[in-house]
Specification:
Order of helices and strands: EEHEEHHHEEEHEEHEEEEHHEEEHEE
Number of strands: 18
Largest sheet: 10 strands, mixed
Strand order of the largest sheet: 5-6-7-8-9-18-17-16-15-14
Low-confidence stretches: none
Radius of gyration: 26 Å
Mean pLDDT: 91
Length: about 325
């Protein structure tokens, strides 16, 4: 094995088998494979190839402090049988076939890059990395438009890996959004300010909009966000009020999400018909790292909901989903004790 450009050229007897069976590396000639350093580590650990030279590993991790984590991600994807091509090897061919931020392309075990299109585009992060939500959403949209899944693999300080799917979600419901006339009608009711920035609205007869407020005795309790939507300047709403308005326009019924650690849980039908499919985070929350995002998404998955982060892009609210995949596509690495 010898150094070649930014990788390692392998010309051994196993080169044909490594490509034909496992699609490892990039085929240069019939008996030559170009491998990245992380693929060299995988082949050393799982295909019994020798290091290029005695001190190779020590020198490589000095050059690339992320190399161990990268090799763990390669292992997590390949051990279950996936085929993986790293975009680093495709740079000289142009990256029109994938997003510029994609780290690797994944094929399932029954497919091969020579015959089939990739099933997913891959990025990886450390659990301590903070999430750039706008870039992540843009990446997911571009990947999904190619008909592929956008997958992220997260590695922690124990070198354990978890997988999540990134989606651009478009929550929609069946409920009739409140009109401005209806909101003005609610604004005309007698109201009393109570604790926790809430308002008790006095009314008789049928309440005009089930999505606004919580029924209580001979009135309705309205939280501060709903109150600002009803009485505030519609041209200059705070972010959480603007998202609340957008959810109503989408035909949804937002209710407090306190017990799930979010601002809202959202129903797409009349309450009591089915569970709330979505949990919506406060758009004003500060950025979070992957450790917190994975925990939130895992909790949401445990109650059959999707965790969503609202993002305003070009004046329109978008919803970033970080979704725990089904059990058969949670790529993880074998933990070595």
């Amino acid at each position: 094995m010898e150094s070649y450009k930014d990788g390692w050229l392998y010309s051994g007897s196993a080169s044909e088998r490594l490509w034909n069976k496992s699609a490892i590396g990039k085929k240069i000639t019939n008996n030559q494979l170009l491998l990245t350093s992380s693929e060299v580590i995988f082949c050393h650990n799982h295909r019994h190839l020798d290091w290029p030279y005695e001190n190779w590993f020590e020198e490589e991790i000095l050059k690339n402090p992320n190399l161990i984590n990268e090799s763990i991600i390669v292992e997590a994807l390949r051990v279950p049988g996936n085929k993986l091509m790293l975009t680093k090897l495709l740079e000289e061919d142009g990256l029109d076939s994938c997003d510029k931020d994609t780290w690797g392309l994944r094929w399932n075990s029954s497919n091969h890059p020579r015959n089939d299109k990739p099933e997913a585009e891959i990025r990886w992060f450390h659990s301590s990395d903070y999430i750039d939500r706008e870039k992540l959403l843009s990446w997911a949209i571009n990947v999904n438009q190619r008909g592929r899944q956008a997958e992220v693999l997260i590695v922690d300080n124990e070198q354990a890996v978890v997988t999540y799917k990134i989606t651009a979600e478009y929550p929609k419901g069946e409920l009739l959004p409140p009109s401005q006339d209806l909101l003005d009608r609610i604004a005309s009711f007698k109201r009393t300010r109570i604790n926790n920035k809430q308002t008790f609205v006095h009314y008789e007869g049928e309440w005009p909009c089930e999505q606004i407020g919580i029924d209580y005795d001979k009135g309705r309790i309205i939280d501060d966000i709903s109150e600002k939507l009803i009485l505030g300047n519609k041209e200059n709403l705070p972010p959480e009020v603007s998202v609340f308005s957008d959810l109503l326009v989408r035909g949804l019924h937002p209710r407090p999400g306190f017990k799930y650690g979010t601002l809202w849980r959202c129903y797409d039908q009349k309450i009591g018909t089915d569970h709330a499919p979505w949990l919506i985070v406060n758009p004003s929350n500060p950025p979070i790292n992957w450790e917190n995002a994975c925990l939130a998404s895992r909790l949401a998955s445990g109650v059959n909901k999707i965790w969503l982060q609202p993002l305003k892009v070009n004046g329109i609210w978008n919803y970033l989903g970080i979704v725990r995949p089904p059990a058969n596509s949670r790529w993880t690495n074998p933990i070595k004790k």
